[in-house]
Amino acid sequence: MRKPAVAGLAVERAPHGLRVRGTQLYVDPVGRTQIGFLAHARGVRATLPERTVLSARTLALLEASQHRTLRKAAPLPAAFGQSFALAGLRLSLHPAGHVLGSAQIRCESVDGHSLVYAADLGGFGERAPATAEACERLRCDVLVLRASYGHPRFSFPARGEALADLLAFVRATLAERRTPVVLAASLGGAQETMRALEGHEMCAHPAILRAAEVYRAQGVELPAASALGTVRFGQVVLLPADNRARRRVGEMGPYRTCLLSGRAAIPGFAEKLGVDRIVPLSDHAGFPDLVDYALESGASSVLTVHGHARDLADELRRRGVDSHPIGEPHRQLELFP
What we know:
Elements: E1 11-14, E2 17-20, E3 25-27, E4 35-37, E5 51-55, H1 56-65, H2 67-70, E6 74-78, E7 83-86, E8 89-95, E9 103-108, E10 114-117, E11 142-146, H3 159-175, E12 179-184, H4 189-196, E13 201-204, H5 206-217, E14 226-227, E15 235-240, H6 243-246, E16 255-260, H7 269-273, E17 277-279, H8 287-297, E18 301-305, H9 309-318, E19 323-325
Parallel strand pairs: 3-4, 4-5, 5-6, 10-11, 11-18, 12-15, 12-16, 13-14, 13-15, 16-17, 18-19
Antiparallel strand pairs: 1-2, 2-3, 7-8, 8-9, 9-10
Helix pairs in contact: 1-5
């Protein structure tokens, strides 16, 4: 087993979530803090830190969808790879590959020791998304991994294979003279879907279209989609994967639903949600991705949080890495990433 990490550089549970020990810097905090890092623009709460460290693209997405929330905060946008001093640390942001603008944060102390909070990582290699920056694998002394899919059952197929399943669903549904309804995260998954369905006529929920406009402004090529209204036969409907948006499907005449989610690996998940098809297309890193990242980081200590934190830590210890889960305030698990 690798030698233990330097004791002075770690994260700890604090009143508003996880904080870099001995500093005021929170990572993905819950509630109001003085300084906090926001990893991405999906699922942002109504309260941001007073000073919010985030990527420039995440800020652009928030300006389009959360402008009222931003009024109460002082954003500190940073370009990927830019080094800056804050909270007694040398900080830099690096692509996480989850959604457009999603970031990891690297913290370096005055004595040169490093900690990386990897936040929500995306897939690697054949699983890398087409509409987000490629994930950068970082080396560090201490690594903090979010384990949303940190269980061995979450081993996802290549992106091309999952998209082929989606396209087959769309073609088969249209052949039955029904409307294909694709349920995906409004930020990230929906834009991947738009890219994959180029050549089909699409209409989409307003939240999906708002995010798509930012993607285009940031240089990501996406095909056109019209605003959701009266659905005509031949259109593919894109809706956010949440219960409120799904109520719209009853207004569309004959239809079939397809959910894009890594939770496809859970037996019976489609039946539980009442969808016709579920495709294992996720913008999160799967279990093998998380294990590989930890091993390649060279970290002497890996802390796991969220989701299947204990399962991931157990596997890393079996691989000879000093790893354990760290508690965080209760958060509702993301259901459809």
